[in-house]
Design a protein that fits this description.
The chain is an alpha+beta fold. The chain has helices at 13-16, 45-57, 101-112; strands at residues 4-5, 8-9, 40-41, 63-69, 76-83, 86-93, 116-124, 127-130. It is 22% helix and 32% strand.
């Protein structure tokens, strides 16, 4: 199946954002009958942030993140980290319109060197796609 995100082939999405595709840990939902990739239906951007936080909570890794690429909101990264033995999940938003989205994710990963990463992209309002390799 050939999927594109804004003219970029989905396999190139990690590269587009300057991220290492080998760190990907998300798997897209699939139809059990036809194996077609499905969308995550989320009403609000905050629902996407909450979902990313839940997905990170389920991971044993204590140094991972999910990048969110919404249609009509600030790109963001939801991060899970452990400090002083306490797990903390928080979101980082880029509200600087002059800075390309490609720099946000790449810069944060370069600084933090996350062990695992995922990307969720809003294709249509309320329809989010999990980027797989």
């Amino acid at each position: 199946m050939d999927i594109n995100i804004g003219g970029i082939h989905i396999a190139d999405t990690f590269t587009k954002y300057g991220l290492d595709a080998e760190k990907n840990f998300l798997i897209a939902p699939r139809c059990p009958n036809c194996d077609e990739v499905g969308y995550l239906l989320l009403e609000t951007f905050e629902d996407a942030v909450d979902l990313a936080g839940s997905l990170l909570s389920e991971q044993e890794c204590c140094h991972c993140a999910i990048c969110l690429v919404p249609i009509n909101n600030y790109p963001s990264m939801v991060i899970k980290t452990t400090e002083c033995g306490e797990t903390i999940i928080f979101a980082v938003y880029d509200q600087n319109a002059d800075k390309p989205i490609t720099n946000l994710f790449c810069d944060l990963d370069a600084e933090a060197n996350f062990h695992m990463l995922g990307i969720l992209v809003e294709q249509e309002p309320g329809e989010w796609e999990v980027v797989e390799i």
